[in-house]
Amino acid sequence: MTGFAMQRLLLCFVLLLGSAPLLAVQVADMYSASVPVADQSVAERQRATRQALAEVMVRLVGNRAILGDDRLVDTLKRADDYVLGYAYSDPGLPPGLDTPTGSEASDAGSEVPEHSLALRVSFEGNILQSVLRDLLLPVWPVDRPVLVVWLVQQGASGVQYYEATEQDGVVSVVEAALKRRGVPFKMPLYDLQDQMSLSADQALVGSVRELLVAGQRYGARHWLVLEVPTSSTQNRALTWQVGGEHENAAGKHSARLGISPVAGAVDAAIDRFSKAFVFQARHGERELDLVVGKVNSYGDFKALMDALDQLEVVTGVQVTQVEEGVLYLELRAAGDADVLLNTLDGHRNFERVMDIGAVGSSYRYQWRADYQ
């Protein structure tokens, strides 16, 4: 065996041992947003509250185009009706040093300079979910797939992984954009192990096999590849790739230097990525037969049923048959079957085995009890 072959074998062994079973996680803090404000006046607070609600709605639906939907106009106008609470804070201060509101603010008597404030607004999550369903708007469940974010750039020496500096702030912008959209992510280390499993060239062209192998280390089956602008790429459009094993998309973004094109590229990629996971509320319920193996105890059964109950896309579950270690289920799901399957494929406890059934309406999975 050659030295290189031995290195590849060792890499595969390390990947198997070191992979983290994230796959999909439930995103926290889905119903809050922070917006810069000029002062603490009522008019400015109302403006910021509407902007915060718009940001939250984009996060819940998964696509910025929703802001142009006539069905949402009245909801945004009545943003104050959905507020759970709010607080002012100085963006430059550590968490916990929020500026008090109401009578507490009067007692404190502190003055905050203009344009140094942010208003953080929290909304009633259950009410917003009801609004989406009542308006028949799309819903992106909070159980979302983890993206590994690969940043690349092209220069005189070819395609390379992006080397971040403290001055440019590109990584911070990417992270902030993904958090704003409610997308869980992992930033790679770009060390020898990463570069052995995925070259920068392979990342840029969206090589599915290599991206999947590299993602195993970070417990993810999905990725975002973003080409970062450089001084030598100002005169052409740059590329982004987003997706997973079964769903992929690519696009172009401006090569202008600065952080705005990068944030815009992240938004465009997430608009496209979310389409594989959203379902239409109260529209087109679908029944599917699910066969789940390796359900070897009552604890496995309860954990499996609890997991299905937490999936927003699942509207009903019925057990139709039980065999030794195998559970037969009839599921009712909102929207297309592919949305449910994409959700299960990204879940840490479900592993797809094969499709069965004459018309493809039955699907077989194995329960992975070790990933709790």
Q: What percentage of the residues does DSSP assign to strands (E)?
A: 25-35%
- The shape, in one word, is globular
Mean pLDDT: 82
Number of strands: 19
CATH topology of the largest domain: Rossmann fold
CATH class of the largest domain: Alpha Beta
**Helical region count?**
12
Low-confidence segments, given as residue ranges, are 1-19, 93-114, 356-360
Largest sheet: 6 strands, mixed
Our Rg estimate from Cα atoms comes to 23 Å
Structural class: alpha+beta
In angstroms, what separates the terminal alpha carbons? 39 Å
Tell me the CATH architecture of the largest domain.
3-Layer(aba) Sandwich
Number of domains: 3
Q: Helix proportion of residues, in percent? A: 25-40%
Please give a structural write-up.
- With 372 residues, this protein is of the alpha+beta class.
- It has 3 domains: 16-26 and 142-276, Rossmann fold (3-Layer(aba) Sandwich); 32-123, no CATH class; 284-367, 2-Layer Sandwich (Gyrase A, domain 2), CATH 3.30.1360.
- It has 12 helices and 19 strands.
- The chain has helices at 3-18, 42-61, 73-77, 103-108, 125-134, 170-180, 192-197, 200-205, 208-216, 260-273, 298-309, 337-345, and strands at 24-26, 32-37, 83-89, 98-99, 117-123, 138-139, 143-145, 147-155, 158-161, 185-186, 222-227, 238-244, 248-253, 279-280, 286-293, 314-323, 326-333, 350-356, 362-367.
- Strand 16 and strand 17 (326-333) form a beta hairpin.
- Helix 6 (170-180) packs parallel to helix 10 (260-273).
- The protein is globular.
